[in-house]
Write a structure and sequence with these properties.
The complex is a heterodimer of chains A (309) and B (449). Chain A is α+β, with helices and mostly antiparallel strands and 309 residues long. Chain A has 3 domains: 133 residues, Sandwich (Immunoglobulin-like); 85 residues, Sandwich (Immunoglobulin-like); 29 residues. Chain A contains 2 helices and 18 strands. A 6-stranded mixed β-sheet of chain A has the order 2-11-9-4-7-6, with no helix packed on it. Chain B has 4 domains: 90 residues, no CATH class; 201 residues, Immunoglobulin-like, CATH 2.60.40.10; 95 residues, Sandwich (Immunoglobulin-like), CATH 2.60.40; 38 residues, no CATH class. Chain B has 449 residues and is mainly beta. Chain B is built from 4 helices and 28 strands. The chains are: A alpha+beta (309), B mainly beta (449). The interface between A and B is large, with 69 and 60 residues.
Chain lengths: 309, 449
């Protein structure tokens, strides 16, 4: 009788344990994915020497995410990057902007201040040209999506790779890259002058960033001028943010230009923090002296002409 | 759920052969109870330490209920003529959508982000409420499980008011969006948006515009600064009216996606939490986002309080708002207080019921049927002495260049140290001796623009 009881207890315990384990497994499966990174393209089947664009999207699955990074891997023997477009991205500031300069991979990382929540948030797109025939996969590795919780908690992530097939032969019509139909300049922006003991040995530097909703930002240029009227004589210099300023006395006007991939431009100007009084500006004296000199010459010439009459 | 291990009655019951099979379950619950802890906590309440007692059998002529110990779950009874309520209830809820309205010719397009259900609340669809009177009554239309809806057949020049209500499969709804208003305009007419001082979370006037624009309206704090970030950078700042209402217009936009962040600064310069939303801007349309309710600010007079002494918790919200302060402790405390005519609220909290250790408090506000989210939490220590709160105790996280803002300059400094060895401690926001994505995520959370 006692043995039967013991067996019953053991059986009950085992059964209960199984139920618990299955319950936890189900719960774990339900919570497995909180965000999803996925690719989207118009087609999966291509010919050799074809062109196609693949876009990368983020589904935050109801969570608010504010930081993302990853590395897109693709077979370089089959594909070649033609262009990366990040215009209209949900990422506001790129730590590592995706670019077309690497072979076989594209690294990226960036943030969205305040967080982002959507089912199909556009990150960027990549235009590829096909090379050899064959099957391949474009996949994402080392990807992280962090939640906007003030702690940088990593969201569980599901990543769906993109499979494609390249057939032998060339497409009927030679593909051409879609022309950029972007006539809008980049968004207006406000560069800022800053200083930190942790950067550039406490030198003053300029920070700038903006977006272009059409083709995306191609680059920035910066120039400094002690006078606005003299700015036309200053040369634009290609720059990346943060940019160390030439005039560490902050007495110059600072011009920052954002250029999009269609060539549209947006210029922002920062007035000097410590403007030099006009009478301390040599160019002003040069102009004044030049005017005085011209007046004198004019007067002499006028007097001569009067006398000659 | 935690089993009261000191409960000798329960132990006695569980060690009898009849209930012995439950013992491993309960023991395992004791070990892994954290797995279900989230099911007992919401932003509004927390179920603390319910003790499960096997009740044995309960019978009547119509039904039988057997004692049961289980995780909270849907169960069945043999009742035929009446309902049976479980001993432990849980209350699924759903977030309220933030609605944007885009005007068109005789139509208004409403869009919103998908809502989030909690504790098993599953979205089944949305109802759009429409009215020509502010605050309703609304005529509701089921639009299915979508995140946008175009209301057509509207009269140009007439202001319309809309709300969106998510529903589950049974037609239950616990949340309704704040009202948003829009005035459809004809294709040829392009009146400029007309800012208005008030309007119950929406605004009067408005309309189409040839250039894309966004009009934001809502409530912050009386005569306080309100900042709007566009894609992470300050786009506009304004001052709210004496009634805490604000309306700002952003022009010069392109077609495409924008991330907007709105936050307020109260009369002491304390910032609210961020109100964030994304918009897709379409051509030739004025997009209105109404009903933005900025969370209350919160502060305390002490960073450490001697247990048993009072700590003052205060902040600012909408005038005459009902403010709920939630104090995090072993047993959460909720205190309701009223804001004065300037929106200021003040509450002395007796710390006697609080355990020694770190605690936090946060607040939310309700006014005119609208409810804000909980704002930022402020931490304080219940200890052996009183230490007055100073700003230096809580420097702004992510402010690397110490200019009291977290913006592109700080981002640039952090980006320089990204994945570099031996970063300065101030740049390493999570103290893991490296600057990686986590530090940027923390910075993005505390972003001020």
């Amino acid at each position: 009788m006692k043995d039967k009881r013991t067996i019953r207890i053991i059986l009950h315990s085992a059964l209960s344990f199984c139920i618990l384990i299955s319950t936890f497994s189900t719960t774990a499966a339900l919570n497995a994915y909180a965000s999803e990174l996925f690719f989207e393209a118009a087609n999966r089947k291509f010919m050799q020497s074809d062109l196609f664009t693949i876009s990368v999207f983020l589904d935050t699955q109801g969570e608010s995410a504010n930081a993302i990074e990853g590395k897109i891997i693709f077979p370089p023997q089959l594909l070649e990057i033609r262009e990366v477009r990040d215009g209209n991205s949900v990422i506001n500031f790129w730590i590592e902007r995706p670019n077309a300069e690497q072979t076989g991979f594209i690294s990226f990382s960036g943030i969205t201040p305040g967080g982002y929540q959507a089912t199909k948030g556009f990150l960027f797109s990549v235009a590829f040209s096909t090379k050899l025939s064959g099957n391949g996969i474009i996949e994402m590795r080392n990807a992280k999506v962090l939640l906007d919780d003030g702690k940088g908690t990593q969201a569980n992530l599901k990543i769906s790779p993109f499979q494609f097939f390249i057939s032998k032969g060339s497409p009927a019509a030679q593909p051409t890259a879609k022309p950029l139909e972007d006539r809008e300049p980049p968004e207006s922006f406000k560069p800022e002058v800053s200083q930190s003991q942790y950067l550039f040995d406490s030198k003053w530097f300029l920070v700038f960033a903006t977006q272009d909703k059409g083709s995306g930002i191609s680059g920035y240029e910066v120039k400094e001028a002690s006078l606005r009227v003299l700015a036309i004589f200053s040369k634009w210099q290609s720059a990346v943010s943060p940019h160390v300023l030439e005039d560490q006395g902050l007495r110059s006007y600072i011009y920052a230009k954002a250029i999009d991939k269609a060539g549209n431009k947006r210029i922002s100007v920062i007035a000097p923090r410590y403007p030099t009084p006009w009478y301390k500006q040599p160019p002003i004296w040069v102009i004044i002296l030049a005017i005085v000199f011209l007046c004198l010459i004019g007067k002499i010439l006028w007097e001569k002409s009067i006398k000659s009459r | 759920m935690r089993i009261d291990k000191k409960n000798t009655n329960l132990r006695k019951v569980l060690t009898t052969p009849k209930w012995a099979f439950l013992f491993p379950i309960i023991t395992l619950w004791g070990i892994v109870s954290f797995a279900f802890a989230q099911e007992f906590i919401s932003t509004d309440f927390k179920v603390l330490d319910p003790v499960v007692m096997p009740g044995g059998y309960s019978t009547s002529t119509d039904y039988t209920v057997t004692g049961v110990i289980t995780q909270i779950a849907i169960s069945t009874s043999t009742a035929t003529g009446f309902g049976v309520n479980a001993g432990y209830l849980f209350f699924p809820f759903v977030s309220a959508p933030t609605v944007t309205a885009t005007t068109g010719d005789g139509e208004v397009t409403l869009s919103w982000a998908a809502v989030t259900g909690f504790l098993g609340w599953t979205i089944s669809g949305y109802n759009v409420g429409q009215s020509t009177t502010a605050s309703g009554p609304y005529t509701y239309t089921s639009v299915g499980n979508v995140t946008s809806s175009t209301r057509t057949g509207l009269t140009n020049g007439t202001p319309y008011y809309f709300v969106v209500r998510p529903e589950d499969a049974l037609g239950n709804s616990t949340a309704t969006s704040t009202e948003v208003s829009a005035t459809p305009t004809g294709g040829t007419a392009s009146p400029s948006p007309t800012p208005a001082g008030g309007g119950g979370g929406g605004s009067s006037g408005g309309g189409g515009s040839s250039a894309p624009s966004v009009i934001l309206s809502g409530r912050a704090y009386p005569l306080s600064k309100l900042i709007v970030l566009k894609d992470g950078q300050i786009a506009v700042s304004t001052i709210a009216g004496p009634d805490a209402r604000f309306e700002v217009s952003l022009t010069g936009l392109s077609l495409g996606n924008y991330n907007f962040v709105v936050y307020g600064e109260d009369n002491k310069g304390i910032r609210s939490s961020l109100f964030t939303f994304s918009l897709y801007i379409t051509s030739g349309a004025a997009t209105r986002v109404g009903g933005i309710f900025i969370t209350p600010t919160i502060a305390a007079d002490k960073s450490e309080v001697k247990r048993g002494d009072n700590i003052a918790i205060f902040g600012q919200s909408v005038p005459q708002a009902e403010v709920t302060i939630a104090v995090n402790s072993e047993e959460d405390i909720f205190i309701k207080t009223a804001a004065d005519k300037d929106g200021v609220y003040f509450q002395n909290l007796d710390t006697a019921p609080l355990a020694l250790g770190q605690h936090s408090a946060k607040s939310k506000a309700a006014s005119d049927g609208e409810l804000s989210s909980f704002g930022k939490a402020i931490g304080f220590l219940v200890g052996a002495k009183n230490t007055l709160f100073t700003q230096a105790v809580t420097p702004l996280k992510g402010d690397l260049n110490k200019d009291s803002r977290v913006n592109l300059a700080d981002f640039s400094i952090a980006a320089y140290w990204y994945n570099r060895p031996s970063p300065p401690a101030v740049v390493d926001l999570n103290d893991d001796e490296k600057v990686d994505l986590i530090d940027f995520s923390i910075m993005a959370h505390y972003w001020t623009g």
